[in-house]
User: What shape does this take?
Amino acid sequence: MGPRLATMAWRNLWRNKRRTLLTLASITFGTFLSVMFTAMQDRNFADMIDYAARLGGGHVTLQHPEYQDTPTLTRSIDHVDQLIALAQADPGVTKAVARVQGQAMVSTAAQSTGGFFLAFDPTAEDEDSLQLIQGLVAGRWFDGPDDKAVLLGRTLADNLEAELDDKVVYTVIDKHGEIAAGMGRLWGEVGTGAPSADGSFVMLPIDRVRESLGYGPTEATEVAIFLRDARKAPAVRDRLAGQLPASVVALTWDQVQPELSGFIAMKVGGARFMELVIMVLVAASIFNTLFVSVMERMREFGILIAIGYSPGQLFRLILWESAWLGLVGVALGALLTSPVYLYLVAHPIDVGAMTAGENMEVAGVGMPPLLRIGIFPENLALIGVFVVGATVLAGLYPAWRAGRVEPVEAINLV
Assistant: This one.
């Protein structure tokens, strides 16, 4: 009886082609909008998270337990070589590097200003771990971890009236809480894409900074850990947490950068609400189609019951009709969405051109200049299940009405 009901339901849908086609059009367009909304979110926010991770502490950060609340250079961690080896043994980790971050006063012969410095080993970093390598706009990169060199954000260099090869002095509070200073030549300028960062960013070779701070050769403020998929950060953090000494904690990117996490959560929540509204409107159109169809066929249902059909069979018949609408609508939505999706994958939208070249930033992280799209497979599957589920739910009441037909009264309807 199941296959026969499915066949009957399919034929019933095409008894009123115009109404069915209009309903399928609404499901198709709703699927298209849901997929495109989600695809823009998934790729764009994944890019933002990766970009932020490659600007600072990675997708997972190992640091002193008190550093997050009080980020001073006195709260360092030691034996970072062992921590890096521990992290790289995890199957989800692609890279782990030691870094020193903190506040500094930066001075040239002309000006002085406060800034934020990042010290790292240039021989251990690449574009997959340090986004700033791609941001070099003038000069050259460090050769090694003990170079007597400085790289500045391009706006900071302008504010300090610094030219390439000028002396730059940075003053910090060292490991013991004392004032310490270091000096280097300006080797290059870097653009991060975030105006506030470009106006305060200082990059230094890690061994020179360790010497200035009184750090040991395996001491740093953090170990930045990079993953293939940022969504796996909590799982990696939990696996590492059980193997770390008490003097080190593991934090995910959203714990280290709560402002960015809050922004993304707000945007995702807004988009999910819009998708819900779209699905409600689609479900309403399906409900209208099925309800009108049921009310028009009450006499027919009465005859079916009179010749031996049960109320349960009529109930399942209408649910089959709603399920067919959902399945066909999702298939048509895939046909409509695929060429647009593939085109936008190959041709990202240039957001920078729309903003007249002005960079936008969130929580000190520059927004990607190109709006790329890409949907996570589980989200795509969820949209398909949700659309079909919404159509079946929309058919429950019409199906219930069909199953409650009184044969004698229905047959006498004109």
About this structure: The chain has two domains: 2-51+261-411, 65-247. Residues 79 and 248 are 11 Å apart (CA to CA).
